[in-house]
Each structure stands twice: as C-alpha cells, then as structure tokens.
Design a protein that fits this description.
6 helices; alpha+beta
Length: 209
C-alpha cells in the first residue's frame, strides 16, 4: 500500500522530468542571483533575507515555467498568493508542489491561514491510487553566506514537521543526469533570537511564497 512517508515510492512515482527541471531552474536562478549581487553589491548589503527571497523566488518560478512548458502530466498554476506545480501520474495519484525556500533545518515559511495549515498537514487519501500529496520544492538557503544551495524536495506532515527531505545534485561525470542525496535531520535546537526574528517576519509577510 502506498504511503508518502516512503520517500523512494514518491521519488519513483514522480519520475525524472520534474526533479531535473527543478535542478536546472535552481542553477539558473542561482546565476541570476549572482549577477544581481555582482551588479548591485551595496543594495544586497542593505536587503533583509526576506527581500532576497522575494527576489529569488520569481526567477526560480520563471525558469521552472521554461523547463516544464509542454511536459505531459505537469501543470503550473500561479494564483495569488500561491504558485503551485501539479504532477499527475499515469496511475491517477496527484502531487501538488509549492516552491519554498528551505533553511538549513528544512524549515519553510508561509502565511498560517486555515487553507495553508490544511495543505501542509499531509497527504489526503480518497482511495488507493488517487491520493493528493503535498510537497515542498525549491532550494536550500545558506544563511551565513546568503547564497542559494542545492535544489531540495521534501514531504512534511505539518509545515515544519519534516518526514523526509532530499537535495538534488548534478550527476557529474556519471551516466545519471542528477542524483538524490538524503538530508539527515538536524537535532533540534532552541534559538530564541532566531525564533523572534521568524515571528517578526511572519507578521510582516511570509518569505518565498
């Protein structure tokens, strides 16, 4: 019986086209961001992290649109306040991915509306083969250097209750165009200053919608 907690079942189910597109789109968004930093270094120094996220996110989405245009079984929808990618498998199972910035503990941010809480609560099941599975996809943010890291795909049951997460990296000299690398869970830490910053950011506006 299918369960989205089995990461290999999900990764096998979504196939190669989407993760490869995400990898390429992340690489291209990283190049865009590097060009912006090089052109306007003084601007970047004065920008909050949420400002940078709001700069990067639409570039990543634009590259995903370019990579996934015309791909069977994949539909991109942009409707305020969400951008979503629908992936429909041949067997009828559906995945809905929202593009999110992952921090180094795989936390993500969004407005905590009732519909948002329902979305991140986990897979909804009607009957076998017709589940609707929510995924968070995007990139890992390197906070210390303010750089875009690897492309990431994760499944969670609760916005910040991560069940599993993988980075997606280029295959290098191997035959595979990309490889999945499991992200081992970090031990929980309590950072009161960081928590207060997150709360303030949530009040001002969620990052990386």
């Amino acid at each position: 019986m299918f369960t989205p907690r089995d990461s290999q079942s999900v990764l096998d189910d979504i196939g190669d086209k989407f993760p490869l597109a995400l990898l390429r789109a992340t690489d291209n968004a990283r190049d865009d961001y590097a060009a912006f930093r090089a052109a306007f270094p003084s601007w970047v120094l004065r920008m909050f992290e949420r400002d940078l996220a709001n700069l990067i996110h639409p570039r990543l989405w634009a590259h995903l649109e370019d990579e996934l245009e015309g791909v069977d079984g994949i539909k991109l929808t942009a409707s305020e306040p969400y951008r979503e990618i629908g992936i429909q498998t041949a067997g009828g199972r559906g995945y809905v991915a929202r593009v999110k910035r992952h921090n180094e503990s795989d936390r993500i941010r969004s407005y905590s509306t009732p519909s948002d809480l329902v979305f991140w609560s986990g897979a909804s099941v009607t009957f076998e083969g017709f589940e609707r599975v929510p995924l968070a996809v995007g990139y890992r943010w390197k906070r210390d250097t303010r750089e875009i890291g690897s492309a990431v795909i994760s499944y969670r049951e609760g916005k910040n209750n991560v069940v599993w997460a993988y980075s997606i990296d280029g295959g290098g000299a191997g035959a595979e165009p990309f490889v999945y690398e499991p992200i081992l869970p970090n031990l929980p830490t309590v950072d009161l200053l960081d928590a207060s910053r997150e709360a303030a950011n949530d009040e001002r506006g969620a990052e990386g919608q």
